[in-house]
Design goal:
Rossmann fold; single chain; globular; six-stranded parallel β-sheet; alpha/beta; binds flavin mononucleotide
Length: 158
């Protein structure tokens, strides 16, 4: 069975809550998922998954340094993450506070690894975003995003 890693950084729990909502969506589509804090993920772990979904709070319009550090260390496996599914999500304090730039920064790293990403024509276009604590809208979007990631992982594993 294909397996997805959701790797997140979270200080006050908003991004963490989103990670588990996305995991619910992935599981509901019969794809295995591990949810881990970035501190518990080694670069070599990334090789073991069919999909990698990264989540971060927005810090000055970009992701937390802890997540960027994992991305930078992943250079050791440059070329080896090719064609896995990539995804991203972020929380911020404000509308227009940079959550989308954070998501795009994470997706950009996935693309540089040669990974495959998917957008959304109706929900959050680049990946789920939340203003502080996720509300019902965010919960729905995260679950739908998880299903979409699972769908793509299954397609690419055929
Ligand atoms: C160092 C720092 C920088 C931040 N920068 C931004 C920012 O640029 N824009 C914004 O809207 N929120 C900013 N925030 C707020 C967090 O992104 C927001 O509270 C987020 O939901 C926290 O996620 P967490 O609960 O997963 O830790 C910042 C918070 C900190 C601590």
């Amino acid at each position: 069975m294909p397996k997805v890693l959701i790797c997140y950084y979270s200080r006050s729990g908003n991004t963490k809550a989103m990670a588990y909502m996305i995991a619910d969506g992935i599981r509901s589509a019969d794809v295995d998922v591990d949810v881990k804090k970035v501190a518990d993920v080694k670069p070599a772990d990334l090789l073991r998954y069919d999909g990698l979904v990264f989540g971060s709070p927005t810090y000055y319009g970009v992701c937390a340094a802890e997540l960027k550090s994992l991305i930078d260390k992943s250079v050791k496996y440059h070329g080896k993450l090719c064609c896995k599914v990539g995804g991203a999500f972020a929380s911020s304090a404000n509308v227009g506070g940079g959550n989308e730039t954070t998501v795009l920064q994470l997706l950009q790293a996935h693309l540089i690894h040669g990974m495959v990403i998917i957008g959304d024509s109706e929900g959050d276009h680049y990946g789920p975003v939340s203003i502080e604590k996720p509300n019902k809208r965010v919960e729905k979007d995260c679950k739908e995003y998880g299903k979409k990631i699972a769908w793509l992982v299954k397609k690419l594993s055929e």
